[in-house]
Amino acid sequence: MKKSFKQWATLIAICMAGGTIFKLAYLRDVFYVAMQEAFGFTNTQFGLMMTAFAVTQFIAYLPGGWITDLVPVKYLIPVSLISTGLCGFWLAAYPPFTSVLIIQAVMGITITLLFWEAMIKGTRMIGTAEEQGRMFGLLEGGRGLFATIISFAALWMFTNFGEGRMGLRATMIFYAIALCGLGVVCFFLIEKNDVEGKVNAKEALDGLVHVAKLPRVWVAGGIVFFGYSFYNGLSYFSSYLTEICGMSVSMGVAVNIVRQYLIAFIAAPIGGMIADKMGSSINYLKIALTLGTILTGIYLVIPTTMGIVVVVGLMLVLAAVMMTIRGTYYATTDEIQIPIVMSGAAAGILSIVGNTPDLFIFTLYGYFMDAYPGIQGYRYIFIAMMVFAVLGVGCCFLLAHMKKKIK
Hints:
With about 400 residues, the protein is an all-alpha fold. The protein has helices at about 5-20, 25-40, 45-70, 75-90, 95-125, 130-160, 165-190, 200-210, 215-230, 235-245, 250-280, 280-300, 310-325, 330-335, 345-355, 360-370, 375-405. Helix 6 runs antiparallel to helix 7 and helix 6 packs antiparallel against helix 11 (about 250-280). Keywords: Cell membrane, Membrane, Transmembrane, Transmembrane helix, Transport. GO terms for molecular function: transmembrane transporter activity.
């Protein structure tokens, strides 16, 4: 990949932004107990916080695609970062619950309407048609790397300011300052592409309508939907290791960090390169989803008394396969002949279809664990993951057939 300095700077800026912008919205994932003590919210209120974020996200995906085809990525990403950072300053003031709901809802808009599709379109514009797999793989890996760096920096802030109310406030202010600073940096680093800014509002809307009428775009969205549903089951493997396999909690956390960040950094770019070598992200996804199905199925037959090294090793291999899937399932739009000028609209449809599992998937997996305590609940999760993966393979075959008809 012979790229100019500006192109590499653009990719690095997008990775930095993508690895940081979600941290405030998902602060509870890492600092749940500290937030309970500082804000005094109940578990139900924390659930409502994430619901407020998810609802505005869901609403914003489609118009976000329209805006991304209307306004250059160079302007959208900085505005999204700075506006999200300002929300962080408000959150650090420890406002009442109603205000926190508003903040979460606003971040759903600043992150999704202004950033998400811009990130996808910006990445696509950097690479040629033969490089889409590795560009999106590098995006996923780069996001994982910068998410790791910024997370450990935030943890240092939290620890050094007392790990309580002050520590949490320092963490939120740190994220807010980092986002605003990144917004300025991204404005200067991100290159404006020649194809951007050439359509007016009506033309961008016409493009969105045109893309929405293409069945192949919805099938591509189906691949993201089933791949994302499959991937979300991986978050339950850490509790499987501790609850079923007897691993210590601290060791489980360590394995989770390796699975979530290090594996993403390594595996996603490799998966993208393999997809490009094969000449088709669609064909690669067929293989990866099939392999993921087989690896998940092993957990249905493997004895829980099997050595922990084997169980963890299998989980890390499965995580690596899943990260390659995440690194390539947005790379199909070029392959199915969606013009770059309409790639924001396509990303909007892929996102609204592909992220729909956020509305139900954790409830489904949680139900299995509550209704069937112990290993049986996990087995139902594994079976559901396999079903989603197989359906994803079916979408890949259908999209490959549609691709042939397009040619």
